Amino acid sequence: MSEGATTAGASARTRSEHRLAWLLCAPAVIAMLAVTAYPIGYAIALSVQQIDLRFPDEGGFVGLDNYASVLSSDLWWTDLFNTVFLTLVTVSIELVLGMIIALVMHRAIFGRGVVRTAVLIPYGIITVVAAFAWQFAFAPDSGFVNNLPLISDEMDWFGERFSSFAVIIMAEVWKTTPFMALLLLAGLVTIDGQLYEAAKVDGASAWQRFTRITLPLMKPAILVALLFRTLDAFRIFDTIYIMTAGAQDTESVSILGFNQLISRLNLGLGSAVSVLIFICVLAIAFLYVRVLGTRVEEGRPVK
Amino acid sequence: MQLTARIAAIGLVFLGAVALVVVLLASGGDSEASRGRTLTFFVAIQPGGSIEEVSKRCSEESNGRYTVEPEFLPTDASQQREQLVRRLGADDPSIDIVGMDVIWTGEFANAGWVEEWTGKRKREVTEKVFPGVIETASFEGKLYAAPFNTNTQLLWYRKDLVKQAPRTWDEMIDQAERLGRGNGGTIQVQANRYEGFTVWANALIESAGTQLLSSPEEVDLAEGPTTRALEVIGRFANSSAAPPSLSTSDEDSARIGFESGESAFMTNYTFAYASASEEAPEIAKNMGFARFPRIDAGRPSKPPLGGFNLAVSAFSENKDIAFDAAACLAGRESQKTAVELDGLPPSRADLYATKAVTEAYPGFAELVKRSIEDAGPRPSTAAYQDVSLAVQRSLHPPDKIDPEDASSVYEELRSNLEDAVNREGLL
Lengths: 303, 427
Description:
The complex is a heterodimer of chains A (303) and B (427). With 303 residues, chain A is mainly α. In chain A, 73% of the residues lie in helices and 0% in strands. Chain A has 11 helices and no strands. In chain A, α2 (65-71) packs across α11 and α4 runs antiparallel to α6. In chain B, α9 (195-207) packs across α18. Chain A binds chain B through residues 16, 19-20, 23-24, 26-27, 30, 52-56, 69-70, 73, 75-76, 139-142, 154-156, 158-159, 244-248, 256, 259-260, 262-266, 269, 273, and chain B through 1, 3-4, 7-8, 11, 14-15, 18, 78, 82, 85, 89, 107, 110-112, 192-194, 244-248, 253, 256-257, 260, 382-383, 385-386, 389, 396-397, 423-427.
């Protein structure tokens, strides 16, 4: 505003354009505040109070007490370990499988549409339904898995921690690999085919072409896919809730929050858990963007 | 300038439209409640249709004063509660009558979600009802619901495999071990990590001669009897009498295990008999019944106690007629309908000699009645969910309990229960 060179007319125009910009943004800003900022703020406000729906006469500000009781509980750390473990394992398996599927979808010579649709079907199935289907398959009394060769008829998959994890991981991977594959495929199609032609002429093997051309050029797509899936996997709830409901020490932090909020109606404690989950998710996003973000720039496909 | 104004106008219209939609959406739910004297009855679904039947009859008998519209909740107890709690927690006026599981009374009453029953109505709905069942509908000495159906578990066994019904859990485990796994030598119970597990563990602890809580905020758990009950759980879970899927079993998987001939023993609710008669007539022919087994030979067992009581919501706009309707829905005639169509045990003791009950429970009506009279109910406290979660956390999976030395699990259970009644820590 201080620039003396601008004429009065131009500055009035700039001002009106500014106002217009604000007006145009306003609905989106209001909507974001209403649906995002308000609930988050409310959760934070609840998390510093002693508040339990079943005991309406109690209550009051307790500072960080709720956080202290969450962080000093073994349960929180066990569940955080479970969540991180499940996230790491499922996302790594999904990345490898998703990459293979993306390459296949990319190369499919005939029936492209059919192949891509078929691969996407698991992702279109509601998580709860998929979880039930996998649970029934592995149930010791009615499932088919225990009738397969090499598997004991009496194997109780959900009766032990790591066999439960195995089924949960399989169900998660089955369901979300297509999503990973789709994101990777989007990266794959941006690579110029001529690069491969040139490499072939120079005598590069198929493996060399994959590691020297495909991978470096797909880095941005891979990072985006990993970020999305990690954030998603960290909030795992449905599959565990259906299969074990957290029994056998398979609980995730989301189920822990659910138990405090919905089963116990202890809104203070439950909100503290929710806020801590929110902070974890923020930290993951921050890590990806900060540590790996620079690499996104490096790996931008050359045009 | 003109453009800005026009866009601003469009923006305002848009905002107005959004506001209108929000208002319309928000008011959509209210139209139900304002439909005059229609009473909405939120209740767990019963497959035999008894809820529809009693709602229809009471509506007709009211001579146009009210129409009861049942609104069904899922079969899973925790999901039923979750739906009710969400609505009641938000002061939802669209619920008039609540079908309340026996364990929710303390919680709903303390939160101020259900109305107290007093005077003539109270006398009417508690007449001839088992005293233990009235307790489950009461909190801190006040009645909050009209007792409808009750429920208890019996020991079901195969007469062709077992000569005499076992009296104690130890005897039953011995008999099962002798039969062997391939020959029906397993016992079906409910030991998934859910409310059914608390039912089982509580019945064993009560049968051993102690209880979880002595008052809503006081842990009891006498050490000797509790350890004894835990050792029985540990012995069973680590023996060949435990079915392979013990730690994920529920009422339905237990029923299937018994009906398939895999298990010669089962503790389960009264529906098991009707179910076996229909699904596995060969097994039903040899189906014996006995009282829930004891822990110690010298001390009578305390079988589990379940059931539903009918409460009037504090947010109902028609409380007065809702009380009348709930009294009718839970009344003598309705209880007969419930046992006829769905095999639900009546809460009125005087009905056990009627044909409705003796036909539903051929030969074991008296056993059901005595089991209810002697039952060991789950604790009555506003923090019941915390208590139940604490029991499940401490004792599940059951095979973690060392049958020789349950003292460490006892300590864990005790400290988790202390946390639960004080509502501290995570559960």
